[in-house]
Amino acid sequence: MKRAELFSAVAHEMKGLGFKRRKSNYEYVLDLGPGFEGWCSFADATKGEKTALWVATFVGVRSAEIENRILAWCGDVVPGWDGRFYVPTVSMNVGYLAPESQWREHRIDLAAHSVEDAIRPNLSDVTDIALDFLREHASYAGLAAAMKLDRGQLTERTMERLPIALALQGDMEGAHRELAPMRRQVDEAAYLAPRYLRYLQGFETEFPLERLREE
């Protein structure tokens, strides 16, 4: 079995689950309703084995409202990644959502496994874990809850996205509290301080806490 055959089979099965392929057979999206999109991705590595692949499954939810604000305020969705890049608002390896809460990947022997046997573990990640996660977190409250899990996520991305998710669900006090780490980065003149200043200006213009207190 060739690597291309493996991921072609994955693409077929993901289509059957309602996903649409993005730019390759490694990344898929699922409509979760207005403004929200589910995301699944597969990452493979050889780890020095000629006939084996290690394949990990990732799951995430993207909010257009959140990502568009970050792009408008900061100039890119992630430092160095402009609007052409697709970034889930929250994402993680599915293993962190399983009872063991740890990194998960599956070893596939391209020489010994059939295509059906090879793709089964990663597809089970999708059907048994990822789909439930997507359905449960396709809202601002759901996104905020997922980000607060703090399991296998990038702190810098969560720091920019959690305040917006809270603000959009109406928790303005909580949203402004979550800005504290970013303010510390600015005070300490961290290398991302200019970016965070732009973010804070954009956030406080759209979601001013003082005005809400007066109302």
TrEMBL record:
Protein name: Uncharacterized protein
Domain of life the protein comes from: Bacteria
